[in-house]
Write a structure and sequence with these properties.
Shape: rod-shaped
Largest sheet: 9 strands, antiparallel
Helix content: 25-40%
CATH topology of the largest domain: Immunoglobulin-like
Structural class: alpha+beta
Number of strands: 14
Strand content: 35-45%
Order of helices and strands: EEHHEEEEEEEEEEEE
Number of helices: 2
Distance between the termini: 33 Å
Length: 222
């Protein structure tokens, strides 16, 4: 499970809460086990050969150390929970806005803003559009320099492509030889934020996603 911020802006610390509960249960069990062992030892010691005061002091010190460790673990769990929630909350206002990433383009009938890196040594360049299975659907000529433009979602014949997820790639040529290829960046609407082992993840329209660290630009929705 992952922590998430949904479109309502709420923060759910599911993973951290479960981990904290599990850790607390384990630590509490160890604490009570140690207490029962110490109590049993005192009750059953030989009256003619009682426990030395130094040994008893050592065990009491150990008991105190266990208690302090449990309290420390609980405090660390609370800090972790608060930190995770705070990290997600700072991206809550991204929901409903658009981010530029190298994620696949989700075409819903409206033009998509595309940004290419460019290649100065090229003499020509194409934008290659592939469907979700990787099949080439169309290609169109684009500038060789870095540029931002609107991809309409229509093929070379002027037919509108079906709504869905598409891969937008770039090919740069020097005469007829391909000298560079890449992935075009596209703007996508943010629908939520999640916490993962890799960091905060931006959820995008069309069930795609990207790490916050991979976001190139942020803008208001059109």
């Amino acid at each position: 499970m992952v922590n998430s911020v949904s479109g309502t802006g709420s923060v759910a610390a599911a993973t951290t809460s479960l981990a904290s509960s599990s850790a607390s249960a384990t630590d509490g069990s160890d604490y009570m086990t140690f207490l029962r062992m110490l109590t049993t030892q005192v009750q059953n010691q030989d009256p003619l050969n009682p426990m030395a005061s130094t040994d008893f002091a050592v065990q009491l010190a150990t008991f105190s150390g266990v208690e302090q460790q449990i309290q420390t673990n609980n405090l660390l769990s609370q800090i972790l929970s608060g930190t995770t929630g705070s990290t997600l909350a700072q991206y809550a206002d991204w929901i409903g806005r658009e981010v530029l990433t190298y994620s696949p383009a989700v075409y819903d009938g409206d033009p998509i803003t595309v940004q290419t890196a460019g290649y100065s040594a090229a003499t020509s360049a194409n934008l290659v559009v592939r469907d979700s299975s990787g099949t080439e659907i169309m290609r169109q000529t684009i500038p060789v320099e870095a540029t931002e433009f609107e991809w309409s979602g229509f093929d070379e014949a002027g037919t509108q492509l079906p709504q869905g997820v598409y891969q937008l790639q770039t090919e740069y040529f020097e005469n007829d030889a391909v000298v560079a290829t890449g992935v075009a960046a596209v703007f996508s609407e943010v629908t939520g934020v999640e916490a993962s082992d890799l960091g905060s993840v931006i959820l995008l329209k069309g069930d795609t996603s990207a790490l916050v660290d991979d976001v190139l630009k942020l803008r208001s929705a059109r």
